[in-house]
Amino acid sequence: LTFPLLSVTLLVSFGSSMLYGYNLAVVNSPAEHIKAFYNATWSQRYGHGLAPGPLTLLYSLTVSIFALGGLVGSLLVGVLVARFGRNGALSRSALLVLLAGGFMGFSRELGSPEMVIVGRALTGLHSGGCCLGWDQPPPHGSNLRGFLGLMPSIFICLGVFSAQVLGLPELLGKDRFWPLFLSVVVVPASLQLLLLHCFPESPRYLLIERNDICGATKALHRFLGTPEVQDVIEEMQEEQRSLSSMEMVSVWQLLRERSVRWQALSVVVLNAGMQLSGIDAIWFYTNTIFENAGIPVSQIPYTTMGTGAIEVVAGLIGCFTIERVGRRPLLITGFCAMGVCSAGITVSLLLQAALPWMSYVSVACVVGIIAGFCMGPAGVPFLMTAELFTQSHRPAAYIVGGSLNWLCNFTIGFIFPFLQMSTGAFCYLVFCGVCLLVALYVYLVIPETKNKTFMEISHIFA
Question: Which residues cross the membrane (predicted)?
Fold first, then answer.
């Protein structure tokens, strides 16, 4: 049972996470072209161009509204799954991407910046709506738990890298191609839509949540390729009986319950910290950061692509070592590396006027931030959210962690350009402080959860 279902999980995760990563980085390369389009359209409508402040505000909204869409989508996941099932929810979510691609692809032809913003919001809605699992992760003690927990972060890195490659001047990085560049999202969404129809609905969802024994049996026949599925059906029915007697905890109850207070606080710190660490500023505004660091404009796209390749390698290292070294070392090392490199960017920017070679230090620090993030903080917080709670508390914990994740993503995407304009090189010290404080919290409070049950983890917290 495990191999086919996990294969489907990885397939669905691949498509959704690739789209998420692509949408994170796709606005980086064509930033100046999009701003020029906004300015020209505004001039045609009102007879004058946009001042630098309002133009920055409009572009920041374009970048960050993706996260607001993601927040709405993540809050609608439960309703969508209850009504349409996992397969149906993912299929309908993919249709949003096709609509978003149409909006962004024809925005310049129709002279409408609003279509770009709406398209970004719809892609965010899709990414938030895909925050659902096909089936439960392997149980406590499984050596697949950490590996599969970090696989989505690998796919996100691949999506970011794809956007960086397609953004090269030789491909879609030219001014006339930026609407096409934004609308490329329709390709993986179409593939996902086609592939989803090749698979039946999740057997576990059909039996436990819909009480459809016949449908679950047929789905298992297709997954396993054997008529002998009665033992699996009985196991699922036993789980269904245990869940039916379990009272699910609301978000408010989770936050008020003293017995899990430190676990809830840990979810808040990890999920907020991973976004406030500055990684979204790096992904959204890589070209601007390198330009401020003094990298020649002609070399910036290739330097950016190099960082994308490194983040994929770093993610693979974290994925294949998490079950050996554990969660805590990856988190502490990752956040410390990000903090030190954020401080390094500040120092290099302050000294680059006197020491021209400091621009290369800036590049190395950006690479260090990305590598540190992808090795641990990119995926471990999501994994630990599941590991710190029993099934009765887990949905509420996911809502808390996911909402904070999207809100902090929006905050960084929206305010970073203004923070950079007002504080210059010192803006990275904010990220340095966040990263080091989160690393200290993990070191002092959060126990190692590798191969431990919830009761063991709860006892350590107590």
Answer: 57-82, 94-111, 117-134, 146-165, 177-196, 264-285, 305-323, 330-351, 357-384, 396-419, 425-446
